[in-house]
Design goal:
heterodimer; A: 278 residues; alpha/beta; Rossmann fold; eight-stranded mixed β-sheet; 10 helices; B: 506 residues; Pyruvate-ferredoxin Oxidoreductase, domain 3; 3 domains; seven-stranded mixed β-sheet; 17 helices
Chain lengths: 278, 506
């Protein structure tokens, strides 16, 4: 094994906007990994894949294994990592554009495959690195340079979609609440199967009218009841600042993972080895 | 001695079983076979046919006139009798009306008798295939219904039979494949099926994700994590993958891709034949990055070149593309040769978890894998990618066959071709004063091609496409434009006698 630093920080120059909630999401992710390391998770067992966009810059700011992927493709890249070595703890970081627009098919099938990985979506309801166009979660009326007359379509509710897709772990957090985000991400990583954490964040530059929803958010207890999960998902439709926004573990169930279902992967997992060590 | 037998009927009637039984019996008696499969994109009904070519020497094509027709329905005779030779024979379902599903077994028996082979060989094969006394009886009934027309004698050849897709699957297994990831698309699907059937025995995994975009991106993820990974598709599916191929160029994660061409553009003619995708094999994906492109011409070459691709991809962090097409993928070739001993493919690069922390990126990156927009790194990395290709080319030139010379090696008349035209060109030039230069590596391409062409009195390019893509590649690399061209692009392979006549026009 080659030498490597067990620090999570890197000395890479931060290029997120000053004050961007991405800084807080990064802090939450690091906190979750630190906590898991104390529980005997190996530092080198963590891996991330990324999309393209502001969210994905996290690749350079955290010292874990990483595959910086293509726009919308963090999920299949992460799936691949779990096929390539089922002992990795893989997180796929995406924005709402990559996850719900460009890569939507992967999201649905990731739920179906239930491979052991965590999808983390930084949802600020706009494409930001491309200077503020509408995404599938933008509210009706959002005016951008690409949509000067305003968004006309009803936003997609990713939590409802995740429930309908059969995702076995669904959570939502507030980017500004670092401790809660860390706690939920830790639970998501521990979940056997595919987990999904939707992080509501503000963008300080684009689609600012949808910002500051903190007062609508309230923490829920971990929920394992599907009917209740659907009620929770329906409490906010992403279309404005009406209703309540539940945060926490909205749904969890334990089903066989891809690693349970495929004998070769199970063998690698049981023996704690990768293909290259067979 | 060469015979061409057309076996036709409706999809689902079992024509492939006839060609399989007959070919296996003929092979065991020392005769070479080549079986071309012609079928439209449907599952039941319609009209399918195979042309089984039989020879006492190697054979890799069929001819334009038939020695016999095995008709499982009336339509087959109507459609094909115009190309039956005057002394040709026809075996219809007459006399076998009550056999049901065993009609194909009876007709196989009838054909074996026409060739004059012993009944025991036939019955042994039927027994092995079906374990059904009714099938044995049907075979016997068919055998007894005909006269011995050809009186073929046993030959001492030891012959095996394989399709190109199985050759590719074998090459992958020889290389110690861990993962084959693919979404079905004709004519690449045979590799998906062949490998899926072998995965438990050999301890690897075959996975079919939601689409080709997921195929290539999950393959890059899996390979990054240390799995020896191959993916496969045909034209449209490959198009969807090309952004991922470009990411391979930047991330330098080893990746082997099987591209099996079918006539396009668009959805084209899915189950027919063309060599139309050399250009996309060479160029698919944005940006400039190195790659390997091989063009095997038969199943044994497919097996060997697939192994070379795994080796080169792993050693150089390179994209390797095995370019095939329906004719080499699905036609059944027979041979008395076996593949060379495979090269061991070892994963020596740093792997996440196993070797610590590793980063790979679709973005331009520094030595630690972190994103950079620096002009220094941009140039350095581009130069390194080029140097890597040069090193790979040097090793390939020393170790692997980039071209093959067939026919008369001293001849001043050269035919240039690649891939699936190999079989038919060899058959067409038999006895003619021609040297056949078969191009096996399109990228890198052999420096020797130029010398051969410069010393030639006459050069003919033979390709199955509209624009002469191999000719264009050779012109780009050598500056030599081949004016004499025989191109075919109607979805059907060349017939060796017609190709021979075309060659003799020059």
């Amino acid at each position: 094994m080659s030498l490597f630093s067990k620090k999570l920080d890197t000395d890479y120059e931060m290029t997120w906007c000053p004050g961007c909630p991405n800084h807080m999401i990064l802090a939450g992710v690091k906190q979750a990994i630190k906590s898991l390391k104390k529980q005997k998770y190996k530092h080198e067992s963590f891996a991330l894949t990324t999309d393209v966009g502001c969210s994905s810059k996290i690749f350079d700011y955290i010292n874990i294994n990483g595959l910086y992927g293509l726009h919308g493709r963090a999920i299949p890249a992460a799936l691949g990592l779990t096929l390539g070595n089922p002992n990795l703890n893989v997180m796929a970081f995406m924005g709402d554009g990559g996850a719900y627009s460009e890569g939507i098919s992967h999201f649905i099938h990731a739920a179906r495959f239930n491979s052991n990985m965590t999808i983390i979506v930084h949802d600020n309801q706009s494409f930001s690195l491309t200077t503020g166009q509408c995404t599938p979660t933008s509210q009706i009326g959002f005016k951008s340079k690409a949509e000067p007359m305003g968004e006309v379509n009803q936003p997609l509710n990713p939590v409802k979609m995740a429930i309908a897709s059969g995702m076995t772990f669904i959570a939502r957090t507030n980017a500004k609440d670092i401790a809660h985000t860390a706690e939920v991400i830790e639970k998501a990583i521990k979940h056997p199967g595919c987990s999904f954490v939707e992080i509501i964040q503000d963008c300080l530059i684009f689609n600012k009218e949808i910002n500051n929803k903190d007062k609508l958010m309230y923490k829920i207890k971990d929920n394992k009841n599907k009917a209740k999960a659907e009620l929770l998902a329906n409490q906010w439709d992403y279309n404005g600042k009406n209703g309540k926004i539940p945060i926490g573990v909205i749904y969890q169930e334990i089903l066989p993972t891809l690693q349970d279902k495929w004998p070769r992967l199970k063998e690698l997992k049981d023996k704690k080895i990768g293909w290259a060590q067979k | 001695m060469r015979l061409n037998i057309l076996i036709g009927g409706k999809a689902g009637q079992g024509i492939n079983k006839i060609s399989e039984i007959v070919a296996k019996v003929m092979n065991s008696y020392g005769y070479f076979t080549f079986n071309y499969r012609d079928y439209p994109s449907l599952i039941r009904g319609g009209h399918n046919y195979n042309i089984l070519s039989i020879s006492d020497k190697r054979v890799g094509s069929y001819e334009s006139m038939l020695d016999g027709i095995i008709a499982m329905d009336d339509n087959t005779v109507k459609l094909h009798k115009k190309i039956l030779k005057k002394d040709g024979f026809v075996i219809t379902p007459k006399g076998f009306e009550n056999l049901g599903r065993n009609l194909n077994v009876a007709q196989s028996g009838a054909l074996i008798k026409v060739f004059g082979l012993p009944k025991e060989l036939l019955i042994n094969e039927i027994e092995e295939q079906f374990h059904n006394p009714d099938s044995n009886k049907a075979g016997e009934l068919g055998y007894n219904s005909q006269q011995n027309k050809y009186g073929l004698k046993r030959l001492p050849n030891v012959i095996t039979k394989m399709v190109g897709n199985v050759g590719i699957a074998k090459g992958a297994i020889d290389s110690g494949i861990n993962l084959y990831i693919a979404y079905p698309m004709t004519p690449s699907t045979g590799v998906l099926h062949a490998l899926a059937g072998e995965q438990e025995k050999h301890g690897f995994m075959v996975f079919q994700p939601e689409n080709e975009i997921s195929v290539v991106n999950s393959a890059l993820g899996a390979s990054f994590a240390g799995a020896k990974t191959m993916i496969g598709s045909s034209g449209g599916g490959y198009d969807l993958m090309t952004e991922g191929l470009s990411m391979q160029g930047m991330s330098e994660i080893p990746l082997v891709v099987y591209l099996s061409a079918r006539p396009g553009p668009g959805s084209g003619i899915p189950t027919y034949h063309i060599q139309g995708d050399l250009d996309i094999a060479l160029r698919g994906g944005h940006g400039e990055f190195p790659r390997i492109v091989v063009m095997p011409g038969d199943p044994i070459e497919a097996q060997e070149k697939t192994n070379e691709c795994f080796y080169l991809s792993e050693k150089y962090g390179m994209l390797s593309i095995i370019l095939g097409d329906k004719h080499v993928a699905e036609s059944e070739f027979s041979t008395s040769n076996t593949a060379k001993k495979p090269i061991k493919v070892k994963v020596k690069r740093d792997l996440p978890l196993i070797d610590g922390i590793v980063k790979a990126s679709s973005y331009e990156h520094d030595k630690d894998g972190n994103t950079t927009e620096s002009a220094k790194w941009a140039k350095l990395n581009a130069d390194n990618r080029t140097k890597k290709y040069d090193r790979a080319k040097e090793e390939i030139s020393k170790k692997f066959e980039m071209i093959k010379i067939h026919g008369n090696p001293e001849s001043k008349n050269i035919i240039v071709g690649s891939g699936s035209t190999k079989g038919v060109i060899l058959d067409a030039i038999e006895g003619l004063d021609y040297k056949f230069l078969q191009v096996l590596y399109a990228k890198p391409i052999s420096n020797e091609i130029k010398q051969h062409l410069q010393s030639a009195a006459k050069v003919i390019l033979i390709e199955q496409n509209v624009t002469g893509q191999l000719g264009r590649l050779i012109r780009e690399k050598t500056g030599i434009s081949i004016a004499n061209r025989i191109l075919k692009y109607d979805g059907l392979p060349f017939e060796s006698d017609k190709l021979r006549a075309d060659i003799q026009q020059f």
